[in-house]
Specification:
This protein has six helices and 17 strands. Strands 1, 2, 3, 4, 7, 10, 11 and 12 form an eight-stranded mixed β-sheet that branches. Strands 13-15-16-17-14 form a five-stranded mixed β-sheet. The chain has 300 residues and is an alpha+beta fold. It folds into three domains: 88 residues, Pseudouridine synthase (2-Layer Sandwich); 131 residues, Pseudouridine synthase; 56 residues, Archaeosine Trna-guanine Transglycosylase, Chain: A, domain 4, CATH 2.30.130.10.
């Protein structure tokens, strides 16, 4: 397969590199300068990291952002600066740890709609500056709690009283590190995230062909074989196909066009040409497709 490097790669990120490191390595392997990601993973985390290439970078906000699914390990008995075991330990619990029954009972309270405080070292912004940058300057700044939804948070006891494996299914904006921290706070012993793997975001899951090694991605042939074409990306807006080429040309020049029969009455829509090329994203207003994102045709 040949052609432009554009579309979606469902990368299986290893633990260690940052999300930016993965973007840089794919940029180098493909020669495509326009590469972005749909949802940062902390360096310690592994699993699904959606990458968008070429014109698809303009569509990243229309990819599914939830529910997000994770598996991982948490450790009770300590509190850290980063709410995971890679950070500076702030306090160690001296007494006996809670029983498994107490832990599982407390975890059930961390379900449903909650107000969650982001980690003190995270990408959340306060007054326009990211928390991790403030932390590097030695400033202890806290972000306002945000509403999240925990659809499931199920624990299994591990090898010792401090260790628990878990699965979680959560809304966008949820910090799994904060769930581990808050569980430890509820139990009075402290808690931190020890390992994390993202297994899905909406319908997207890691492509086994894209299980990256810490030193970089597979070769261009493997990347090409796993590349999802821009027309087949799982976008959240429903798709509508125009019936006339004149409408397609008008849309590409920023003009509103009539909605085809069977289109939704309102909301966003992914607009396709009569031959199935993705033209962009529109907002439906009074039976018109009003362009919001237009994808210029590839240069031949």
């Amino acid at each position: 397969m040949t052609g432009p490097w554009e579309g979606l790669l469902l990368v299986d990120k290893p633990s260690g590199p940052t999300s930016h490191d993965i973007v840089a390595s794919v940029r180098k392997a493909t020669g495509q300068r326009r590469v972005g990601h749909g949802g940062t993973l902390d360096p310690m985390a592994s699993g699904l990291l959606p990458l968008v290439l070429g014109r698809a970078t303009r569509l990243v906000r229309f990819l599914p952002h939830s529910p997000k699914e994770y598996v991982g390990l948490l450790r009770l008995g300590l509190s850290t600066r980063t709410d995971d075991t890679t950070g500076e330990v702030l306090e160690r619990h001296a007494g006996p740890l809670p029983s498994a029954q107490e832990v599982l009972r407390a975890a059930r309270k961390l379900r449903g709609r909650l107000l969650q405080e982001p980690p003190a070292v995270s990408a959340r912004k306060v007054d326009g500056e990211r928390l991790y940058r403030l932390a590097r300057r030695g400033l202890d700044v806290r972000a306002e709690p945000a509403e999240i939804e925990v659809l499931s948070f199920d624990l299994e006891p591990g090898e010792g009283p401090e260790s628990y494996s878990f699965t979680a299914r959560v809304s966008a904006g949820t910090y799994i590190r904060s769930l581990a921290r808050d569980l430890g706070r509820m139990l009075g012993c402290g808690g931190a995230l020890a390992a994390l793997r993202r297994t899905a975001v909406g319908p997207m899951a890691p492509d086994p062909r894209l299980a990256l090694e810490p030193d970089g991605p597979p070769g261009p042939e493997a990347l090409r074989a796993a590349l999802i074409a821009i027309e087949r990306m799982p976008l959240t807006p429903p798709g509508v196909r125009l019936e006339a080429e004149d409408d397609a040309r008008r849309f590409l020049h920023g003009g509103a066009v009539p909605t085809p029969a069977g289109s939704p009455e309102e909301g966003a829509a992914a607009v396709f040409s009569p031959v199935g090329a993705l033209l962009g994203i529109a907002e439906i207003e009074t039976r018109k497709l009003v362009p919001k994102v237009v994808l210029p045709p590839l240069e031949s």
